[in-house]
Amino acid sequence: MPNLKLGDTAPSMDSAEQSSIDRITNVGRTQTILNHISVFRADPSVEDGVSITSYGQGQLIGVMYTVPAHGQIDVDINMNLQCVTPSDVITLNNMIKGMLDASHFHKFEETESTNVSGGLGFFAFWSGGVSASYSDVKHTLDGWGLRAEDQRKIVNGMMEIAQNVSTFNYKGTIYNRDFDYDVTGSLFAIVMDATIQQGQHHKQLRFLAPKVHLNTNDGDSLPVVGTLYS
């Protein structure tokens, strides 16, 4: 169960509801609001490759916050999720950047300011925020100037990370500066689901961007100090 340190701001839950949240968060489910959803099965003709099966904004189930009018709350939450942690995504992000020539490196960094990037070029790099088959992704990576050897190294790196246990710690401060009333909301982040194929082996992974934010029930985003992920 997530460890919430929010004073009196967290909603009360009976034991049945508590059990339900435990079951959901411990297996790492998110309630996803994903764009361009489609599914690509492992392709036996592909030796090494990546397909993007879904992409969009995901909501963490079982975690809601209420921020008082013109106030703030401190967030401190720990959990295990079946996602690739932002720290591992940053490692992959930096590996890819190191493979790019100067012009593609600049283009990669430019994508980090887009809404679909979640703050890292890694997320916009694969398909620009849409689902994509193995062949579509390969065509995209070719366009980034990556050789077949570079693409295999990326796949190898992703498969290695897939073996890791993913532990998340979200810690920081969320402000309600603009509203003269209490606002309630949930944590959201950019989520990318992918299938990684290496030879006869394939693995389905969910990647979580580091820029997690709180969306209110009315759809507004509340400001945070830095990034919540630590």
Detailed description of the structure:
29% of the residues lie in helices and 32% in strands. With 230 residues, the protein is an alpha+beta fold. The strands form two sheets. Strands 1, 2, 5, 6, 7 and 8 form a six-stranded antiparallel β-sheet that branches. A two-stranded antiparallel sheet has the order 3-4. A hairpin with a 2-residue loop joins β5 and β6 (201-208). The longest helix has 14 residues, at 86-99. Mean pLDDT is 74; it is low at 1-42.
Work out the helicity level: 25-40%
Query: What does the largest sheet look like?
Result: 6 strands, antiparallel
Number of helices: 6
Strand content: 25-35%
Q: Tell me, briefly, the overall form.
A: elongated
Order of helices and strands: HEEEHHHHHEEEEE
Class derived from helix and strand content: alpha+beta
List the helices and strands and how they pair.
Blueprint: H1 15-26, E1 30-35, E2 48-67, E3 72-80, H2 86-99, H3 102-110, H4 121-127, H5 134-143, H6 148-161, E4 167-175, E5 183-198, E6 201-208, E7 213-216, E8 221-222
Antiparallel strand pairs: 1-2, 2-5, 3-4, 5-6, 5-7, 7-8
Helix pairs in contact: 2-6
What are the defining features of this structure?
six-stranded antiparallel sheet, 8 strands
Brief sketch in words of this structure:
The protein is α+β, with helices and mostly antiparallel strands and 230 residues long. Helix content is 29%, strand content 32%. Strands 1, 2, 5, 6, 7 and 8 form a six-stranded antiparallel β-sheet that branches.
